[in-house]
C-alpha cells in the first residue's frame, strides 16, 4: 500500500485541485484484489496526469506488486443520497 500511497501523494501535489480524494478499496472476498479511484475536474486534467512521465513511473512501481493494472475512465451512472 505504500506504493499506492506514494502515487496518490504525488498526484495530490502535482495535480492539486483534482476535485476528489483518492480511494483504495480492497475486496474482502479476495484480499489481493484492489480498486483505486478518484474524481477529476475535467478530461484534460486526467489526460495530462496519464500522459506525464511520472505517471508511467508510478504505474511501473505498482505493477511490481500486482498481477494486473487496468486503467479506466468512468462516468457516474447513478447515485443515492440519503
TrEMBL record:
Q: Which InterPro entries match?
A: Dimeric_a/b-barrel
The entry's keywords? Monooxygenase, Oxidoreductase
* Database matches in Gene3D superfamilies: 3.30.70.100
The domain of life is Bacteria
Single GO MF descriptor: monooxygenase activity
Its name, as the record gives it, is: Heme-degrading monooxygenase HmoA
The species this protein was found in? Longispora fulva
Q: What is the lineage of its organism?
A: Bacteria, Bacillati, Actinomycetota, Actinomycetes, Micromonosporales
